[in-house]
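Box S2. Input/output pair 1.
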Amino acid sequence: MCKNLLLTILLLFATIQANSQPTTWEWAMSTPGGISPSEGYDVVADAAGNVYATGYYINDTIQFGSIQLLNSGTADMFVVKFGPTGNVIFAFKIGQTGSEVGHGISLDGNGNIYITGSFTDSLLTIGTATLTNYGDQDGFIAKYDTAGNFIWARNFGGVDDEEARAIDVDINGNSVVVGVFKSPLLNFGSLQVANPAPSTLNQYFIVRYDPSGNAIWGAADGAALGDFGNAAAIDNSGNSYIAGAISPNSGLQLFVSKYSNTGTLLWTQLATGNGSNRAYGMDVDQLGNVIVTGEFRGTNFTIGGQTLTNSGPSGLNQDLLLVKFDASGNVVWAKSEGENLSGDIGKAVEVDQFGNIYVSGEFSASTFNFGPSVLLNNGVSDMFIACYSASGNVLWANSGGGPSQEIAHGIAIDGMGGVTTIGSNNIGTLHFGNIVINAPTYTSNVCIAQLNYLTSLHDVSSSDKLWNLFPNPTNGIVGLTGRNVISKIEVYDVTGKQISSHYPNTVNFTFDIKDKGFLFLKVYDRESVSHFKVISN
């Protein structure tokens, strides 16, 4: 349910929602750079196609559209909201003299925004709240309304380092946060969680909050050699999930755990392999199936009786892994993608209401064979977005980047064909399809890009019967031109309700769309039907 509980996808597109369709990059941006790095760590989308993102910046300023944020210390956290076409709606920062980093962002059913991250200041002001640091570095969670107005904030920590790495929120506003800590005792307000193996190494934690920001339950586990909680999820029944990596002996091994609504551990799956492997992203579908992505090294990776073989004979490669578990923790299937002598990593995953799986990450091979798609690398490493069916077959993939290193950290789907990834890029010109961005010649910058698989989507019997729709976005007047006589046009809103119909009986037709927002058109001739997504302002 992670991050896409708000999304309502039109049922009229159920038969064509992702099946091997070409994808188009719709918008992309890279923040103007400086001599110090900045990165985007997470992204989420709402039902209206708005996109929300978080991360950090070390430069004196960071620019989102016309909004410039100043840096108050070493590193500041940013939160930014984009409109459906990539326009910046608002942006704000959290930070004082220390380091503040945003690691996770999610939404509830009312569109409220939840963020999580870490801070080093002894006192941190977020909105009207002042958070007192327990020790060295603390974690925090904060809630805002959809317009960016502050509601509440809570911090947690101990005498040592704590870091929140991921958050997920259900439709009612219950949230789960996961991360790492070193302190002997971890304080979540009045709730305390003991470290199971106190040492100088990280252990993982998971904590559940109610909609008012009260910590309901928490848990910690791990091994003496260190552990990482990297991904979080919560389902409609209130079950919570964590994924990451632990070191039971030597080397990191991927794990996934499920907790009940009251914090009881229900099951854990632990991988094995002759190299390190870890999970970075996780989501839960509407049936309670759990999907995890990450990477593995070594010649093999085994979990739940299924074994993946590394694409490199020496086992030195990083290969992308994608594993699907059922609600009881049984492995349904496991897939890997990779090229020899390459670093190919899955960083984030989302599932739509049809069970289609969307993965973002990066690859360093010159060419990356991704199912029916062959991705070409522009430089050191490029970002990618790929779509799998519920049964684990690759439907499509696309990539973008420049001559240096591009890294993806997050992914979001908006339910209308938009898939957004966020991460960072280095120097050089970026190419996302026909979109060209002249990135400054500095260190890493925040990079965010969105593609769409429903833009000018045609479900026609032959490729020479394509319609042209213009302008899009529109202020109300829309024109259609084509080779065949248009027999009927149907207009639908985002709930699937038909709001108008037209019977042109002509090749070219202009008509007025009075409704605003995201709309969908079905255009009929005698032999075929075409589907379009329209933005009406």
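Box S3. Input/output pair 2.
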Amino acid sequence: MGHRGFWVGLVAVAMAAQALAAGGGGPLNHQIGEPFPDFEFPALVAPEDYGALGLDRREGPVRLSEIPGKVLILEFFNQFCLTCQRQVPYLAEVFRRVREGDLAGRVRILAVGVGNRPQDLRKFRQELGAVYPMAADPLFERWMDLGDPGGTPFTLFLVRRGEDWVLADFHLGLEGDTEILARSRVILEGRADLARKWTPEEGQEHHPPLGLTRKEQAERARAFLSRVAGRPVEVEPVEVEGVRFYRAVAPGGEKLDLFARISSRDPVCDVCHAVHFLIALDARGTVRGFEPIHVTKFGNELWSEADVKRMAGILDGRPGRALSFDPETDAVTSATMSSALIFDEVRRSAELLGKLGSGG
């Protein structure tokens, strides 16, 4: 390494140490210095990914606890996120570097596609050269376990402590290979402060507010359900596991088999907006209506009337509990990530209503 390379590396390590001391990223359900959940994935994207993670097999489910090594770089991304696409060559270079020299076998990488199917990730890998190990999280299950952090790429740095992986640091947004490697070395060499705690104030606002009072939300739900029912209705709030639905009630007091939920989800992309919308379902979870409050597509442009009509047509009459998202057929043009979030919220809402029961 020449003099310039030496100083670049030294500055990168110093920057990583400073970042570790200051913390960074968005909301997270887990604290630095605490054991990280033993996430399980049904399979890796390709047979060769198992060996790249140090596992002596080529198929089957994988738990984080099975992965050998001292540091695990766990990146959550979405294939349609432009920043995630820009991150690929950096992470590919990190993967190349950790397979040689003093990092070999000590630092591992696993990238998780949030809201992406395995077959779509295989295409993503081929098109962008994402050669590192991957797993899919098509139903956002592990993403929600994290706390719905509010954007990708979202990179966690875990350190081995006995049988556990412990959270050492995390980062939201693009990060170069030099910075990722420097963070990893700081952790590997025991220079990370695992006693520090991060607070939500350090990150972005979690679940950006809708800007509507409870009364305004109820009125919005009432007007929406009246349009769906084709007649004026009143609404009454119904709570299911802490989630508020609004049930349609006929003027004479008859409770109708029609429920609305005002849903909000943080974006899956680091430069995208949160989505806010209304969904109507019956107690069986069948979709009866959709209406956006604030939903955007590429460039954070609001959906057009044609976009709204398309999504309403895609969802109408479908069984919400069995809903699965196919980006080829279920996405509004230039709004694949927003469409995937809407599908996931509909599925989760339908599952909650199933716990309520048709008798309400």
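Caption for Box S3: Residues 264 and 276 are 4 Å apart (CA to CA). The chain is about 35% helix and 25% strand.
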